Amino acid sequence: xxxxxxxxxxxxxxxxxxxxxxxxxxxxxxxxxxxxxxxxxxxxxxxxxxxxxxxxxxxxxxxxxxxxxxxxxxxxxxxxxxxxxxxxxxxxxxxxxxxxxxxxxxxxxxxxxxxxxxxxxxxxxxxxxxxxxxxxxxxxxxxxxxxxxxxxxxxxxxxxxxxxxxxxxxxxxxxxxxxxxxxxxxxxxxxxxxxxxxxxxxxxxxxxxxxxxxxxxxxxxxxxxxxxxxxxxxxxxxxxxxxxxxxxxxxxxxxxxxxxxxxxxxxx
Length: 268
Prior knowledge:
The protein is α+β, with helices and mostly antiparallel strands. It folds into two domains: 5-132 and 255-260, no CATH class; 134-252, no CATH class. The protein has seven helices and eleven strands.
């Protein structure tokens, strides 16, 4: 199975601590972090680390929780952190959000970009953390009993990896996601960002065993509307249309526990 860049270098990361060794990590040529003026969440925006060497990485109106997800390759529900650090439902304006612009060095590799983001978190927000394992509910992403309905990405496809979010055009108020060059491991992580309300109890863990890279589409209604009895597919039904399924169970999970993090970054 192809790992995400951050998970593929887990053995390297184990040699680092969040405190005192940030200088060992690669860094952006230059980076600017400013409080966002956007206000609220951007429904059609899904942050990604997919940027070419020598180009500029941009995050708009992003919460620190989502920066940690990208930098360390953890699921949203695997993060244990102070309440101020994230607003899971996007219901308040109390959680700090930032616009981040960072220039990637011309000779950087894809594997180095999450490490650069880790260094940014440690140096600018004074992030300190540890990892521990706990038994908790998870949603296992598995192959369904029927035919797998995932389309293999073309080898010559050069579109960015990841999912872009939008809205349906029918009578039901649905959310859509179009995903390119995506593994099932990528999908498990993306679903927690695309439809966080469905997964408040625990993270999604990829258990499919699939090794391909796929193009796929999803369409679903928000959990609030599903709970109120509205018509339209839930995220679970959307996943089943791909020939996959999400099964809730309890098992040991590695958690990312934030010990310290500043609410505002040091000056640019």
